[in-house]
Amino acid sequence: MRIGLEISPLAINATGIPNYIRRLLEGFASIDDGNEYFLYTNRPLPEDLSLPSRFRTVIVDRPHPRFQLWFQLELPRQMRRDRLDIFHGLFSRMPLSLPVPGIITSYDLSALRMPGMHKKWTRMTNLLYPLYIWRARRIIAISRFTAGELVRLFPRAAAKVSVVHAAAPPGYSEVTDPEILDRVRTRYGLPRRFMLFLGTMEPRKNLSRLLSAFAGVSGGIPHSLVIAGGSGWKNRWFLDSLRDSGIGDRVKLTGFVEARDVPVIMSMADAFIYTSLYEGFGLPILEAMACGTPVITSNVSSMPEVAGDAALLVDPLSVEDIAEGIRRMATDESMRAELKEKGLRRNREFSWENAARQTLEVYRSVLEGEPDA
Fold first, then answer.
1. Beta-strand relationship, 161-163 and 194-198
2. What is the topology classification, in CATH, of domain 2-167+352-367?
3. Domain boundaries in the chain?
4. Distance CA 107, CA 307 (A)
5. pLDDT of 314-358, one tens digit each?
6. pTM of the model
7. Angle between the 17-31 and 352-367 helix axes, to the nearest 10 degrees?
């Protein structure tokens, strides 16, 4: 097969969707030595992907690299020149004049289900999403939850949806080297004992309730709260609340964390807290489990699906429930040990090799002419 993939998000950052794209490409490289891959982007990538020669990066920047002009106008012509067999829109979109069978990956539908939690530009770009769903030959959902959301919003697409789970990055494991731990602790100014949130500071991550919950129990536990990740948007209320909370000395904001430091910080934490309101998958849950860190997460959307019985589930809308989860995790050492072992086992149920293998099966089923929905 000659497979086309949009990888343009890799030119922007290394979190979220870019992380998914990078790991899927690595999964393809590890299991597939026969197909050719054409990796389309509108700008040079900041670093080499270190993939085999059958993976060819193609920069398409005409007539303009912005405003989707390259994507809708020039990319279809480039696909014809590359004689593609199939195209996979890894950014949940596809050219409207697609010359070959097309597949898209759906990460989550929060912009449609919770539009107020997203920027205006995100809401605008999602106006085309129903058209992509209609045009796609198959839709890959990264969780059963996201598949269910697709079917609820687009019932006629049900027969086109396949579930392919994501996984923690290869090599994520507990870091125990004291020198590495001390170096990273100093770099970010981390306290000795802490509970960790890692992600973008935005409304969907529910940080205001997490802060209120932590404030309610902080007097009875020895831990600080570390909030690691980029600043995101609509976070002024949270920052004001932190300033007025009276526990500012117990909350550490690290800002953006380098990818190589993430497993180190997760390994230091006594617990990882991910009480988001909505996630298409919730990859940080598995990342923490891979590092041997017990997890508190939400009992809604995809998070129970990912966590299984290996995390402490709480109601993300209840400050009291989040606070009780923090208190239990801080004071119950045997529960932390049990969740650590369960988490390590749970993480091993997911892999990028499996994700790549299942994705290739979707490609083959499309090219072999399985009936459309």
1. unpaired
2. Rossmann fold (3.40.50)
3. 2-167+352-367, 178-347
4. 17
5. 999 999 999 999 999 999 999 999 999 999 999 999 999 999 999
6. 0.92
7. 80
